[in-house]
């Protein structure tokens, strides 16, 4: 089972991207499940583009031991129920994707179970609100970018090309090792590059 953890702020386009990616994997014959830690702007329901997708929502408010336990328990329940080939995890904006990955690794080790196959950590950025988020939610924004292996500059159709360049430069200053991709969910520009980055 490959686990794909997609972080980012609410309204950054995570849920829409998961829909598109989930559709791709389902069409390829993969069983897909989704674990959501906050209600997104798009409902990822059980019937995703005509494919049966198991969805579970974890509704803890912040990063606590209870949240970590809830996520690991929910993953175990989804695995038992759906036996997915692909599991998407969408943490809420205040939960580090790295924390989620490390907790799942730890849980697998403790339980002596099969180790999970993790895709690179991805963070989605809404290009139209990036600089506002840097100003108002600086720590969370920096934390998300610093732990990410892939940063997707999403909704690039809403800003000028020079703004996209400025955001990319800012992201690479925060995390020089990150792979930065540009995308718009409007017409799925960049979807193939995102898929490639998942391995």
How would you name the CATH homologous superfamily? P-loop containing nucleotide triphosphate hydrolases
CATH top level assignment: Alpha Beta
Mean pLDDT: 82
Tell the overall outline: globular
What series of H and E elements makes up the topology?
EHEEEEHEHEEHHEHEH
Helical segment count: 7
Domain CobW/HypB/UreG nucleotide-binding: 3-180
Protein name: Metal chaperone YciC
Organism: Methanolapillus africanus
InterPro entries: CobW/HypB/UreG_nucleotide-bd, P-loop_NTPase, Zinc-reg_GTPase_activator
Structure, described:
With about 200 residues, this protein is α/β, with parallel strands linked by helices. It has one domain (about 1-195): 3-Layer(aba) Sandwich (Rossmann fold), CATH 3.40.50. The protein contains 7 helices and 10 strands. Strands 1, 2, 5, 6, 7, 8, 9 and 10 form an 8-stranded parallel β-sheet that branches. A hairpin with a 2-residue loop joins strand 3 and strand 4. The radius of gyration is 16 Å and the shape is globular. Residues about 40-50 and about 60-65 have low confidence and may be disordered.
């Amino acid at each position: 089972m490959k686990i794909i953890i997609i972080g980012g702020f609410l309204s950054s386009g995570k849920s829409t991207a998961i829909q598109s990616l989930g559709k791709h994997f389902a069409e390829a014959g993969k069983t897909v499940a989704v674990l959501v830690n906050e209600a997104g702007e798009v409902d990822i329901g059980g019937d995703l583009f005509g494919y049966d997708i198991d969805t579970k929502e974890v509704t803890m408010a912040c990063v606590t031991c209870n949240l970590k336990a809830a996520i690991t328990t929910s993953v175990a329940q989804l695995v038992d129920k759906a036996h997915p080939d692909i599991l998407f995890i969408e943490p809420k904006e205040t939960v580090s994707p790295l924390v989620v990955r490390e907790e799942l690794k730890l849980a697998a080790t403790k339980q002596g179970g099969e180790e999970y196959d993790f895709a690179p950590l991805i963070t989605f950025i809404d290009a139209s609100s990036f600089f506002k988020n840097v100003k108002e939610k600086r720590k969370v924004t920096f934390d998300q970018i610093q732990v990410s292996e892939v940063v997707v500059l999403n909704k690039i159709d809403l800003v000028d090309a020079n703004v996209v360049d400025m955001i990319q430069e800012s992201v690479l200053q925060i995390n020089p090792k990150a792979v930065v991709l540009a995308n718009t969910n409007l017409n799925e520009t960049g979807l193939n590059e995102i898929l490639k980055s998942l391995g």
